[in-house]
Design a protein that fits this description.
The complex is a heterodimer of chains A (1136) and B (288). With 1136 residues, chain A is of the alpha+beta class. In chain A, the strands form 7 sheets. In chain A, strands 5-8-3-2-11-14-13 form a 7-stranded mixed beta sheet, with no helix packed on it. A 5-stranded mixed beta sheet of chain A has the order 16-17-18-20-19, covered by helices on one side. A 4-stranded antiparallel beta sheet of chain A has the order 6-7-4-10, with no helix packed on it. In chain A, helix 3 (48-79) runs antiparallel to helix 18, helix 7 (168-188) packs parallel to helix 12 (317-339) and helix 13 (351-378) packs parallel to helix 17 (437-464). Helices cover 33% and strands 28% of the residues of chain B. Chain B contains 10 helices and 14 strands. The longest helix of chain B has 14 residues, at 107-120. Classes of the chains: A alpha+beta (1136), B alpha/beta (288).
């Protein structure tokens, strides 16, 4: 009997339109995911790792299919009123339940299988460079380990909800809750997929167990796998993945048993809760139907009445339960964004941060919810068999649909309100002054609008679909394609239906100038949604009207806004532009060009407008006469004027390049002048503008507003694959030896900056003079010698002053950390002057920037710029948290030496000199402030950042001496290695070498190379130490220390330590190296006091016996992280 | 007055549900009788403008139903054959909802009509109870109440008594007989008594065609003197069918009675009987 039931179920599902729709949609998704090369770029698309990642993603989407089939398997009896017949048959409980369940499971599995076929079909179209020889094994493994258990779990849970509630909405809510679980675990395990994945947030790997889809476990297991490992190592049921799968299969079984126990064939609707009153016999008097006035129904009252009926969906238990779980989810997101951010530090609860935390989950969960609830709402009258009555009334379909759209809008509003609720609570508890109503309103608009226009699309899709379930499946497809139109090769932003800029809120600059572009796009999408709405009305089931006029107006309006936006969006492909730039001007990279000797500029900042004028002194330092000069100025510049004596200038507007031919060539050693002027404006409806020009906190990098001489390498395309696609050589041309990049030149600097009276201007240099004229304030800055890398900043700042002529310009609301920042800066200046050499500028200016600036902090010559949300909002009230603020300030002050006193050219390894040593400075200063234990915590974050970063990086790993633009190397690895060198030779010796290096390189701006450091290190190290240092800097060296056993008896501690040392190549393939190094062994007691600490020479497998007084509890090898240890968990052992 | 001319409808699967229907229906109760599957509901839904005919025209008073469905709906009361309601909504609230949709925008008038219809349909005591908990008869009465909202000129009741017990059906008949002053009330049913009890005019629909139309008494009179009855053994039924024009067979107290149509007494075993509407119905069905 069971067999027949299952067969019947299978046939039933296999004939539903929704089944074909789901099959087609998932085949397409599988194809698209594989074809688009989704995933890390140096890993083959059909490698075990990426196959599992892709299939895990597809299985996330499978919840839709499961919801459709599981809900259908159970609810169809009730919806089609078959329950009476089915439940009264002789079918047994187990046969009925299992048959129905298994049918739904089979249907979903088939759809997922089709998705896998879609992946196969895409393989021949995938990038050949990323295609490994075909093997079925990874697909089979992923299907068995990820897909099937996921389908089982989702099917069991949704089936259970459907069986026990007989309520479609409850079932869909269950589906959404499954996503919540995934999201919450991804946030809590700091999954690499989450946008806000940040170094050092205290993600707990064990929580990956709780992800019902296994994705978090998969990422946890493979977190440190390098590209080589990802390409080769099989992924299957191993470690945490196995545990996760077992947990959820076990849970599935438990849920199944529970359902089986609770289910009863007795239909739940028995007698009415309260008996109806006994019928009176009808009154004898004849009652005439009273005459009433009937008018054409008023749209408004009909609309309100239908909306009132439909809104009941939002007060239903399933929706309220869903909101409760949603609040839990956003709580975890807000926690991660505010209370457990970079390095585990906490922030003050600014409204902008709450918005950032809720935005992404809202975008995704909101869309999923709309797919389910939109379909349910569209088919609501049908489902309750009220459709004929409704349709026989004279109400227009537009009115009915307007009521449904309103209900969905209310759903969105409820979701947003509930989502920010934990944020409001947190703000009330930890900083009520940060509650900002305007910001929240902006959040409602900017998050609600894309969801609302999607809701309208969902209504149209359902109007065009044969039924509710097909409608859901097609909506999923529409969602994916509207978020990623590039899957179809449609790159223009106007293809992405409903996409608007996210309206970020800064406490300094508010919404900046984003509101107008947002409003423009929002209007456009609303018009398109109106077109959809009219079409949905026209296709309403009884085809009662075709709103031709409204449709015509909506189409016309969307064409007008669309055309208008089209002209305002730079549709030029940025990648092609960069490639063309290099193709056109790359050959001039070696053209002898004059150098910049001095800048004297005036910058006038107005609202939305910046005017620059100025004079460059150019000098020919080459040995040849120069007759051709290239000048670059960003192409947005207006009213450009460039003047050089006796020159002819040809303008290339596309690239903002000016080709200057000098009538009389500039002889070696000769000088000339370039006079320039230009205007930059932030247009009201500029949709591509960066956030450099804002109402408060304008931040203008020199190269954004000033001309530069020669070919601009910063315009080049970096990504090697994109370069290859554009027909460029994969590797960017190496800078020429001895060629000084424009931003590393030594210049004499002078600038006059004018601002409105209420703003302060910031630029490098000593303030020579300041004055006011009219309603403007003028400041004249001069600096006799500095690296040509600066910014002009202006804002309504408060100013605090400190020792060493330190000035801090900050938003008056953000005063909490001001004193600490000045103190740390002063301490760092003192340390660096004592150890690395004198600070040459007469002042150090720090200023706050709005969160729209896309960095945490930026050091420039005697200026440091810090963003509000990553510095000023740091909440230091809990002293046990890592001192993120202190390390940031110390780091940036360190750059005054590492980057500006020593200024390497843009050669390989330059970031090692600039960033790794700033990192080193930060750590030694923090060690003085908070002790070595504190620094150990930070070092551990850096170690992890390195290991996780090298696993994720799609470029080959380079040794530190040749490191490029890879932050996990120059920050993460750099910190550990330099601290290791300090441990090896001692801080005094290392600093002596650094002092000598700084002194030697200070006059060589733009010429310093990373290898120039080596002779100085050679002088302070013995042969053995130097060999080791060279190995660390010149190679990729990894260690693994482990305490294999430890035994304490009669005051003697016997420890067996295993140590391995390997050398890795760029892809992560490792070869063993001999191990012979002295590493510290530490023994501590229960109170954490050190009982023993000494270095021991390790050969690989050593037994160490030492006498220890007291009661040792822990023994630990390399306690201070002096080596890059691949696995830290085995470094410590508890004595039993 | 409701006029149908040349209404035809063929479904996508080839079923010819309606074939060139012509009818003129004056105000008052009009019975549309027909067996299951005759096309009654299709015709009702077409008249209610819930679906479009392939050919033909329908007009109510001067409103073209097919072209101007909106104006028809302002004059329409419709009780579908099978309907449900939103769960948990009270009778009064749901009536008020439909009243708004029908265009009764004056709140006081709306309330008054809802009250009077609740009274008319004897639902005033359960006005605040959810319609979804009603018994079958109560639900049908609710159905007629909502159909009567807004003084419709055309009231369509599609199989309203199916599944009602005799008492409830009786009650429903009383209700129907009281409504529809001056309105066209179209009652579709497969139950002969519904028509014989209520309708001064009627038509019989079979296989998508109107096969008889007129006043019930007139139709009955056409069989006067031509209807014969005989009680026979069950085994003789087939033989009788071959020899005579048997229009129906009934079981009565365990024996089989055949009704035969003939101008003269077919054989001595037959006795003449007075025709009923049921005989008209069967005679018409038997001949088509």
């Amino acid at each position: 009997m069971l067999k027949e039931i299952v067969f019947f179920e299978w046939r039933y599902h296999a004939r539903q339109p929704a089944f074909f729709a789901a099959g087609a949609v998932f085949a397409m998704l599988g194809f698209v995911v594989q074809r688009s090369g989704f995933g890390q770029a140096n890993v083959a698309v059909n490698s075990p790792y990426l196959v599992m990642q892709s299939m895990a993603f597809l299985s996330l989407m499978s919840v839709f299919a499961v919801a459709v089939f599981a809900a259908n398997a159970v609810l169809r009896d009730v919806e089609h009123r078959m329950d009476g017949i089915v439940f009264s048959t002789a079918v047994g409980k187990f046969e009925y339940l299992f048959g129905r369940f298994f049918g739904a499971f089979l249907a979903t599995s088939s759809v997922m299988f089709v998705a896998m076929l879609g992946m196969f079909a895409a393989l021949p179209f995938a990038d050949p460079a990323r295609r490994a020889p075909f093997s079925l094994a990874p697909y089979a493994a992923s299907f068995a380990v990820i897909t099937l258990p996921n389908v089982v779990f989702a099917a069991v849970v949704l089936f259970a909800i459907a069986v026990l509630t007989r309520n479609a909405l409850a079932t869909y809510s269950g589906a959404v809750v499954l996503y919540f679980l995934y999201f919450a675990t991804a946030a809590l395990t700091n999954s690499p997929l989450m946008a806000g994945s940040k170094p050092g947030a205290a993600g707990n790997p064990a929580l990956a167990l709780l992800d019902p889809f296994g994705l978090s476990a998969f990422f946890e297991v493979t977190r440190l796998w390098t590209a080589a490992a990802k390409n080769r190592w099989p992924v299957g049921a191993q470690g945490l993945i196995l545990a996760n799968r077992a947990l959820w299969l076990f849970t599935s079984a438990a849920v199944w048993l529970f359902v089986h126990r609770r289910f009863s064939f007795r239909t739940r609707k028995g007698a009415p809760a309260e008996p109806l009153p006994a019928e009176q016999s009808p009154s004898r008097r004849a009652i005439a139907n009273r005459p009433v006035t009937v008018v054409a129904p008023r749209r408004l009252s009909s609309y309100l009445s239908i909306t009132g009926q439909a809104l009941r969906i939002l007060t239903s238990k399933p929706f309220l339960a869903l909101l409760a779980v949603w609040i839990v989810l956003t709580s975890t997101e807000i926690y991660g964004e505010i209370l457990d951010t970079e390095y585990g530090a906490a922030l003050y609860p600014a409204t902008g941060l709450v918005m950032d935390a809720v935005r992404t989950p809202l975008e995704i969960i909101g869309a999923i919810l709309l797919i389910f609830y939109g379909a349910e709402l569209y088919w609501r009258e049908q489902r309750y068999r009220f459709a004929s009555i409704l349709d026989s009334t004279p109400v227009s379909s537009m009115t009915i649909l307007a009521a449904k759209a309103t209900t969905l809008a209310a759903l969105i509003a409820a979701l947003i309100s509930a989502g920010i609720l934990p944020g409001l609570l947190l703000q009330a508890l930890r900083g009520p002054q940060y509650i900002n109503v305007v910001a929240y309103l902006g959040f409602f608009a900017s998050s609600g609008l894309p969801l609302f226009v999607f809701a309208i699309a969902v209504l149209l899709i359902n109007a065009l679909s044969p039924g509710k379930y097909a409608g859901m499946v097609f909506s999923v497809l529409f969602l994916v394609l509207s978020k990623r139109p590039s899957f179809l090769g449609l790159e223009h932003p106007l293809w992405a239906y409903g996409s608007t800029p996210p309206l970020q809120y800064s406490e300094v600059s508010g919404f900046g100038y984003q509101l107008a572009p947002f409003a423009g796009l929002a209007l456009h999408w609303l018009f398109i949604a109106s077109v959809f709405f009219c079409l949905a009305s026209a296709f309403w089931r009884t085809r009662r009207e075709f709103p031709k006029r409204a449709l015509a107006i909506a189409i016309l309006a969307s064409i007008v806004t669309g055309a208008w936006l089209f002209t305002r969006i730079d549709s030029e492909d940025r990648i092609a532009w960069k490639a063309d730039y290099e193709k056109t001007y790359g050959r001039f990279a070696t053209l002898p060009q004059p150098r910049l000797a001095a800048i004297d500029t005036s910058v006038d900042l107005f609202e939305r407008r910046v005017q620059v004028r100025g004079r460059y002194e150019l000098v020919n330092l080459t040995r040849v006469p120069i007759s051709r000069v290239l000048i670059a100025l960003r192409r947005e510049a207006k009213d450009v004027s460039l003047r050089i004596a006796d020159a002819r200038i040809v303008t290339d507007a596309r690239f903002g390049m000016y080709d200057v031919t000098l009538a009389r060539p500039l002889q070696p050693g000769a000088r000339t002048q370039l006079q320039f002027a230009a205007t930059f404006t932030r247009e009201t409806f500029d949709l591509d503008a960066d956030d450099a020009i804002v109402p408060n906190g304008t931040f203008l990098m020199s190269f954004r507003i000033l001309p530069s001489i020669g070919y601009r390498r910063t315009y080049e395309l970096e990504d090697p694959r994109e370069r290859a696609k554009q027909g460029l050589r994969a590797a960017r041309p190496e800078p020429i030896e001895g060629d000084v990049p424009a931003d590393a030149e030594d210049i004499r600097f002078a600038a006059t900056v004018s601002t409105p009276l209420d703003q302060h201007a910031i630029a490098p240099g000593r303030i020579e003079r300041s004055w006011t004229r009219g309603n403007r304030r003028y400041v004249r800055f001069v600096q006799p010698r500095m690296r040509n890398f600066f910014a002009i900043v202006s804002g309504r700042y408060a100013v605090a002053k400190g020792p060493h002529n330190i000035e801090l310009f900050y938003e008056p609301k953000h005063a909490a950390n001001v004193q600490v920042m000045i103190d740390v800066a002063a301490k760092t200046l003192a340390y660096c002057e004592a150890n690395f050499g004198p600070y040459r500028a007469s002042q150090l200016r720090m200023a706050e920037l709005p969160s729209s600036a896309n960095f945490g902090a930026l050091a420039m010559p005697n200026n440091i710029f810090l963003t509000e949300h990553r510095t000023f909002l740091i909440d230091r009230r809990n002293p046990n948290r890592p001192d993120l603020l202190g390390r940031r300030i110390a780091h940036e002050v360190g750059h005054q030496w590492w980057g500006y006193e020593v200024a390497p050219g843009s050669t390989p390894g330059s970031t090692f000199i600039v960033e790794s040593f700033a990192k080193y400075t930060e750590l030694v200063v923090l060690e003085r402030m908070h002790g070595r234990e504190h620094v150990r915590q930070l070092l551990n974050v850096d170690r992890d950042r390195y290991l996780a970063g090298r696993a994720r990086d799609d470029r080959a790993e380079t040794p530190l001496l040749r490191v490029g633009n890879q932050s996990h190397l120059y920050y993460g690895k750099g910190a550990v290695v330099l601290y290791g060198i300090r441990d090896l030779v001692g801080e005094a010796a290392l600093n002596a070498a650094l002092r000598a290096f700084v002194a030697e390189q200070a006059p060589r701006h733009g010429l310093t190379r990373s290898t120039d450091l080596l002779p100085h290190l050679r002088r302070i190290a013995n042969d053995e130490q130097y060999a080791l240092i060279l190995q660390w800097l010149n190679d990729i060296v990894l260690y693994d220390f482990a305490i294999a056993s430890a035994d304490f008896r009669n005051g003697i501690l016997t420890v067996r330590v295993k140590a391995t040392k390997t050398r890795a190549d760029g892809e992560g393939n490792e070869t063993p190296l001999p191990m012979r190094e002295s590493i510290a062994l530490r023994v501590t007691n229960a109170k954490g006091e050190t009982l023993y600490e000494r270095k021991h020479l390790l050969d690989g497998d050593d037994v160490i016996a030492v006498a220890v007084a007291g009661e040792p509890l822990f023994v630990e090898i390399d306690p201070w992280l002096t080596r890059v240890d691949k696995k830290l968990e085995n470094n410590e052992r508890r004595l039993d | 007055m409701l006029t149908l001319s040349g209404i035809s409808k063929t479904y996508a699967n080839g079923v010819r549900a309606l074939q060139s229907i012509d009818l003129t229906i004056r105000p008052g109760l009009f019975g549309l009788l027909g067996p299951n599957g005759a096309g009654k509901s299709t015709l009702m839904r077409t008249i209610a403008a819930l679906q479009e005919p392939d050919a033909g025209s329908i007009s109510l008073d001067s409103v073209n139903v097919v072209k101007d469905a909106r104006r028809l709906r302002q004059r329409l009361g419709y009780l579908p054959q099978d309907f449900g309601v939103y769960p948990g909504v009270s009778a009064m609230a749901l009536l008020d909802h439909v009243a708004v949709l029908k265009g009764i925008t004056n709140r006081a008038e709306r309330r008054a009509q809802v009250e009077s219809l609740l009274e008319l349909t004897n639902l005033q005591d359960v006005r605040n109870k959810a319609v979804s908990t009603f018994s079958g008869g109560m639900k049908q009465r609710f159905g007629i109440a909502q159909a009567l909202l807004g003084n419709p000129r055309l009231i369509i009741v599609d199989e309203p008594t199916a599944g009602l017990d005799p008492e409830e059906r009786n009650r429903f008949h009383n209700l129907l007989s009281e409504i529809g002053e001056g309105a066209v009330v179209l009652l579709s049913t497969h139950i002969v008594e519904d028509v014989s009890d209520l309708c001064p005019r009627m038509a019989i629909l079979a296989k998508g065609r109107i096969v008889a139309e007129g006043e019930p008494l007139q139709l009955i009179a056409s069989l006067q003197g031509r209807l014969w009855r005989k009680t026979i053994a069950k085994s003789d039924v087939a033989a009788h069918r071959e020899r005579f024009q048997v229009i129906s067979t009934h079981l009565f107290a365990g024996e089989t009675q055949v009704h035969v149509l003939a101008d003269e007494k077919p054989d001595p075993g037959f006795e003449p009987i007075a025709p009923s509407l049921e005989d008209v119905y069967f005679s018409v069905l038997a001949s088509c």
